[in-house]
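Quarterly update, task 2.4: FE2/S2 (inorganic) cluster-bound model.
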Amino acid sequence: QGGTADPGAGRERRLTSEELRSHRWWGTEGLRSFSHRARTRQLGYLPEEHIGKPVIAIVNTWSDINPCHQHLRERAEAVKRGVWQAGGFPLEFPVATLSETFQKPTPMLYRNLLSMETEELLRSYPVDGAVLLGGCDKTTPALLMGAASADVPAVFVPAGPMLRGHWRGETLGSGTDMWKYWDERRAGRIGDAELAELECGLARSPGTCMTMGTASTMASVAEVLGVTMPGAAAIPAVDSSHSRMAAAAGRRIVELVWTDARLSRFLTAEAYRDAVATVLALGGSTNAVIHLIAMAGRSRVPLELADFDRIAREVPVLADIRPGGRFLMEDFYYAGGLPALLARLDEDHLHLDRPTVAHATLREQLAGAATHDTEVIRTPDQPLAEQGGLAVLRGNLAPDGAVIKHISAEPRLLKHTGPAVVFDDYRTMQATINEPALEITPDSVLVLRGAGPLGGPGMPEYGMLPIPDYLLKQGVTDMVRLSDARMSGTSYGACVLHIAPESHVGGPLALVNDGDLITLDVAARTLRLEVDDAELARRRAAWRPPEPRYGRGFGALYQEHITQADTGCDFAFLSREGEVPEPHAG
Ligand code: FES
Ligand code: MG
């Protein structure tokens, strides 16, 4: 790591220290500046340590409750080291953590809140540039959305994946193998002792989930967008390279401030197209669809579901990483990481002449990238799949679209008609899924509603509906499942997700009855409820919207402003055009 080419070199003049935003706090005449200087002495700094230097906010999502970010306190120190070395003034800003594991009902409820917190602290404090520390699923889009809206110079430091999991000589993937062994448990093949051992082996180091789940997908998104140090996304959290990368980011951000290289320079329409292509080549998480649309919205770049489907038809899947493939992020790192994969996509699928935070062009950044293991990172003529593993479906059941990651589904289900078994909410489904009276067969189509952005609330990762125990015992491992929910990036199966509009706002999903035939046809990109329009109109007339869930608090703000999945689930007031005045600092 540690590219040193200046993306602004030769075409951008450098700021003077009087032009730094922070100068308004410390450098001007008057009572306020005097007060700010006195309070900086109180912090323990002499004038020569900070006056005239770029102030770098280290925005840190570390928390005791977030195992994926355990090491980010230490990494913040490495970033500070780099900032000092380059002549900047680092200040750490702790922000909310969104722990995928522990936060309920789902951290997705709080993605926009963390983005607001990030944007507002970058606006309201004397900050010239930011290094963003995060990685557990929602933290990456949240930090980048906030920083993009503030449009400051920024570098993202991904937390990095944890080491491979281990159990009795077997390599385990967090998430993916958790689902798998829980199914084994339900089928009666795993006892208490084995379960306790698995608990110790599934996640055995700091870092984010080490499959190509949402965390690794979004870290890779940040890297291909050009806002991380080169190669950052795949570095294992506990590898010493990770500390060196963090320090390099600290050095780099100071230079980005002097050349006024704000995020908007990098987060262009071309960069977002490349991010979509990369997600597809990685066989990445379906959650990236929602996050990328929301992030592009903050960057004022048009990006819609149709772009994903179109690009998915062009891009081969090159990364053989679980849950779609065989390997884990640690293997991906040793195989050459994202630079190797991007070099293979090349200009057939990427825009290589755009700048990154570390290099004048992505082309220059990828020079010398090599693949060291062609099992893990395939060549385009021997891909894992010819086409990206994602399809956007439409039809009378999903007028505004739905998403399926068909690469992780059993092929026989990709064209399927079956009778619906409908669950109105997740808890009912949990309580009744194993009841023989439901007469669920391998051909049934399991339907979960009430799990969308408003219905969930927060669109929880309920989309991989459980297969009934009695079918599991018969060896059934996949079924067609539909919902307005999301699905964990580490999940798999023939799960149709993000159905929009959601049932809670009266989307057609609300009108499905038990026994209705539903047809999924991935090749045709359709999802149909085989019920005639007159009958659907009758059902619609009888439908009543649910009562609002929240009477006050953040939930009330959320339910008033959240948008549907096809537009990224941002708050409408955050994604719309509009001026935000700079605060007066004097
Ligand atoms: Fe944090 Fe998976 S739980 S990345
Ligand atoms: Mg996840």
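Highlight for this quarter: The CA atoms of residues 184 and 190 lie 6 Å apart.
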